[in-house]
Structure formats: structure tokens, C-alpha cells
Amino acid sequence: MAKRIFERFKKLNKKKKIQLVTAAVLTMALLVALPLYAWFTHTRSIAMTTQINAPTQLYITAGNKESVANLEMGNIDVESGTYKDITYTLTVTLVDSSGNEIGDGDFDKYSVIFDGVTKRFSADSKSISYQDRVLSTGGFSYDDFILNFDKSQLTSSNVFMKLEAVPTDPSDLPTLSAIIGVSYVKPYSASWTGQFTDNTPQPSDLDGFNYRLSGSGEGTVTLTWNTNYVDISPWFKNTYGLTILKDSSGIATATLKVNSAEKNQYDIQFYRTNGINSAEQWSDGNHTDITVTGTGFVSMSFTQSTATEN
């Protein structure tokens, strides 16, 4: 095959030979150039994306570190790949909930700490400013400002601090602002209760009983029952791995770890261990327990887990 192509090539005149060779060279050049161009374009795109996604940022955060706003694009020169420092002025002002400067109050009970130095507000100075603060490039740069409020604000919440960060270089970046206050939130209290769900006039109408644990929060439920009258369902005992302790008088006890985030209700069956006693009655309108001459069948108590910080 190659020999025939070569013989036909020899028969061509000089002009045709030049045209054929030129076309072949251009074809090879395109086959090499196109992948190279695609690789170059892709690499440049990655480089530009990396520059855009990694600027020094200026933002105001609250105590939970949630950004109120941030500045990203103004300090990047994508073409040259250089970054600019951000110079800004932070002003903290005592205001009401609408952002208006407050007229009177115990101003000296409010202060701002920066770099270990405390500045207090006063009747003559309801604003505190920090000039020419610089966020530098080359890493994550930040300034920490500690805002101190009077403890009365935990209940009244009528004095706030307005923060304004004004970029001066570059000056075309937007101003960041936030209004921050404090308030007291009551500690969360978990609660679990137990009651019979059987809806009959008297317990003596039933051969067995349905008991429900329900509630919110995390902790430990302690179940207590009198085996002279009832005993717990073996299915429930085995399903939840209960360890049952029983004293000489027939009182049984077991503990159950509960967490409403996973399960907020448990239905437990109790069966009779002796015959029906005509003196049985509900302990109250909520069917919290069954009693016979003052002796209860089932009771429960709940101990909340000690709160931990993450």
C-alpha cells in the first residue's frame, strides 16, 4: 500500500508535490495544536478560578461566627493574580433596636475591647472608632472586637451596638453593618411523663394494660412496678435490653435511656400476675397510675442528662 502511494507521489508534478506536502504538515500541526490549546485554556481557567475563590475577606460576625456580610471581589486582580490589602475603619455606636442613637442611659457600662485595650462609651461619646485597620493578604486575616453590655440587657434588651466597617482602600467596596444585642434565653428543660392509655371507667374492666412514656429531651427514665399485681411485657424488656432488679417485696425497677430526637414515645404492655381486684381504680383523671387501697401498680421518674458544650 505504502509503495503504491509513493509511486503515485513520484508521478505528480512539482507544484502538486508541494501542495500535498504543505497540506500534510498543516494537518499534523492542527492535530498537535488543538489538544495543547485546550490544555492551556483549561489550565488558565483553573488558575483564574483559584484566584477568585481565595481572596482576603472582610466580614462582621456575631458570637456564633455567622457572617452578616463579606467582601470578596474588590481586592483581586485576576489578570495579574495579585491581591490587595483592605484598609477599613470600624465604628461602634450605642443605638436602639431601630438603629437610632440612644439619648440617655448608663453609657459607661458598655465598652469595646480591642487588642487588650478597653474603650468605654460615655454621654459625650456614644461612638467608638478604630481607624486604618488593615486586613493583610497572604493568609486569613482578621480583627477581634469584644463588645461588653450591661447585665441589665439580659432581661430588658433595649440597648444595642451598631457596627459599621467602612473600607477606605479600596474605597469602592461596600460598607458592612450589623446591629448586635444580647438577651437571656431560659435553659431548655427536658420532661418525660408516663400514663396508662386505656380508656375504661375502671381498671378492673381490663385483663392487661397499655402504658405510654412520652416527652422531650434526653435523659434516663426509671420505671417501677409492683409484680404482685403486674409485670412488664417480655417483648419490651428484650427489645430495649432492660435490666430488671426486683426486691423481696416484689417491687421491680428498670432504667431506659431516652432521647426525643430519636424517639419521643414508648408504648409498654403490662400483664396481670394475679386476678382482678374490685378495689382497683385510676389514681387520677390522667390515668397516671392504678391503685389498690393506696398501693400503686406502675410509676416512673425522669432524670435529665447533664448539658454539655460542643
Keywords:
single chain; 310 residues; alpha+beta; Immunoglobulin-like; four-stranded antiparallel β-sheet; 3 helices; 22 strands
Q: Give the termini separation.
A: 77 Å
Oligomer: single chain
| Helix-strand sequence | HHEEEEEEEEEEEEEEEHEEEEEEE
Strand adjacency order, main sheet = 8-5-10-11
Largest sheet properties: 4 strands, antiparallel
Nutshell version of this structure?
The chain is an alpha+beta fold. Helix content is 18%, strand content 38%. The chain is built from 3 helices and 22 strands.
Task: Characterise the protein shown here.
With 310 residues, the protein is α+β, with helices and mostly antiparallel strands. It folds into two domains: 58-180, no CATH class; 191-304, Immunoglobulin-like. The protein is built from three helices and 22 strands. It has helices at residues 2-11, 14-53, 234-239; strands spanning 58-61, 67-71, 76-77, 82-83, 86-95, 111-114, 117-120, 127-135, 145-148, 160-169, 176-180, 191-196, 208-216, 218-226, 230-232, 245-246, 251-259, 265-272, 281-282, 290-292, 295-296, 298-304. The protein has a four-stranded antiparallel sheet with strand order 8-5-10-11, with no helix packed on it. A four-stranded antiparallel sheet has the order 12-13-18-15. The radius of gyration is 39 Å and the shape is elongated.
